[in-house]
Input
Amino acid sequence: AQRVTQPEKLLSVFKGAPVELKCNYSYSGSPELFWYVQYSRQRLQLLLRHISRESIKGFTADLNKGETSFHLKKPFAQEEDSAMYYCALKDNTDKLIFGTGTRLQVFP
Amino acid sequence: DADVTQTPRNRITKTGKRIMLECSQTKGHDRMYWYRQDPGLGLRLIYYSFDVKDINKGEISDGYSVSRQAQAKFSLSLESAIPNQTALYFCATSDLRQGKNTDTQYFGPGTRLTVL
Output
């Protein structure tokens, strides 16, 4: 089965603390994974994709095939990082399967 | 992204009514999608269309139908609305052209539907 699991519904941290949003996937084959973000009163938008191996807004995510994970990390959280984060997997018919999302709250 | 628009933005209706949600895009993308977002359930795919003549059911298509009137327009209908269809509905587009595969999906602002 193709599936994306985000075990945390809510993650609360203080400004400057490290952040790790967990994502695990189930996929037989070579996965393509993404993180999408939805800031308050804004549209859902792509944050990053594992193929690009890029850092966006200080966030990085490394694909770990052994652990079937694609956790999103940031060393020092900022208040403006508060948002809803969705991990997504591209399935074998080119559609995206989204996880249930994690709400990140960064307190001042 | 203002290139993907949805109408209406908010709608309150009663059980049994027929409702149409519309999505338009000026991005020239071939692919369009309808999702619903529910707290704790994330985004779930209702229907998708990879071009004008292609319509496919998603994960939760029961109770919904769609129409791809043109490349730029993709409408979602609830033939007989029920309260558990109360949700936030998103349209999205993406592009797959010959020799170019861009996975990014571009989302509309959402339509908040309440069925009483």
Summary: Chain A touches chain B at residues 6, 9, 32, 34, 36, 43-46, 49, 86, 90, 94-96, 98-101 (CB under 8 Å). The radius of gyration of chain A is 13 Å. The mean pLDDT of chain A is 93. The longest strand of chain A covers residues 83-90.
